[in-house]
Amino acid sequence: MDKVLKRFGNVSARILFGLGFTLAISIALMLNIIKPLIEADCGVIFVDMLVSASGQANMWVNDATRPPISVKLSHGERKVYEFKGVAGDIKYLRLDPAPGVNGATVRVYNIEIQSSTGKRHRLGPLEVAQWQVFGAHRTITENNFVEYLSVENVTLTSDVNYQLKTRFPTFVHDFANITEDISRYNIIFGLFFLCMLF
Q: Containing H/E element for 64?
């Protein structure tokens, strides 16, 4: 009897993990189909700046505890950097233009927020100069740019109020991000447990 119950338990566990693995694969395939549509519906934050450092710049939108949107820096070159994948109303922005770099010069010419419909909201250098600054000294503020000299880890933050209109509701974007993470981990752990069971 014990052997039968044990065998039945093993079979049930295999079925459950098999169903979970199949569900994860199905979600992943579904996201691959709708992901381009969701990405096309996201807004973009353009930052026109010059950074005398290599590495990457990071942008947090609304929540500084989540992973940032990152772009690769072009050392000493003025460039318009695109931080993509922004959805929903924007209440808070944090920009780290030169993470972990001491003595870097950062010039910000302007910041533009663009919705998926093409509508843009522009922040000029005089507006950016009002942002809170951490780990840097603001050295120059002109009509064309605002300049900072990093002392430790230059961070610019600001509370903003910009309604980023999208075709899909915000919860659709949030659900896509959550289910993408869940499906990725389910696939990994599903494979692991299936190997353990067999």
A: none
